[in-house]
């Protein structure tokens, strides 16, 4: 695989870009204990989006990891998780938003948020704020108590941990370095994002040289 692009998201920022079918997206936590929210839309029709509900239905687990397929709202594969060095991510909670900070954190001043960073990043691709769904919260560590109550714990990711996903369709992708104190053990760090070329198909293995066969009359 060849790295086609790589970028470092500064703490509490986000971006959006295109990924083609077959290409790989690697999300890296360079310093540890940092969450990255991921969402995506079909380039062909952006009203097809990455669906938490469909994905959890078909995986029959809320803890998604290597080998799981991430589905769209139309039940088509959008991503396959190819490598996962952490094994704990969240797909239940929405991206942190300005309202997250007023309702949960009781913040009265401006606070950066994944939702606003996704809105800003995805706007040039024609994605409206109301279209942004529940994000795959990469490295976010959410435990569920027997009562159903949620506990947001420090991410299990250490420096250099990553999630590698293969795009199963042409995608518009939004990704952030999360801005919520609780999700990131109280401090904000960068996130590294790489796009890799599609691996060469198996059929592209070197073939025998047909000219080596002796000529026959
Ligand atoms: Zn966030």
Structural class: mainly beta
By DSSP (H or I, 4+ residues per run), the number of helices equals: 3
Order of helices and strands: EEEEHEEHHEEEEEE
The main sheet comes to: 6 strands, antiparallel
Gap between N and C termini, in Å? Answer: 44 Å
| Bound chemical compounds | zinc ion
Uncertain regions: pLDDT < 50 for 5+ in a row?
none
- The neighbouring-strand order within the major sheet is 1-12-3-10-6-5
- How helix-rich are the residues, as a percent range? 10-25%
Percent strand equals: 25-35%
Report the C-alpha radius of gyration, rounded: 19 Å
Structure report:
The protein is mainly beta. It has 3 helices and 12 strands. Strands 1-12-3-10-6-5 form a 6-stranded antiparallel beta sheet. It has a 4-stranded antiparallel beta sheet with strand order 2-11-4-7, covered by helices on one side. A two-stranded antiparallel sheet has the order 8-9. The longest helix has 9 residues, at 114-122. The protein is globular and about 55 Å long. The model has no long low-confidence stretch (mean pLDDT 94). The structure holds zinc ion. Zinc ion (ZN) binds at residues 37, 95-96, 114, 178-180.
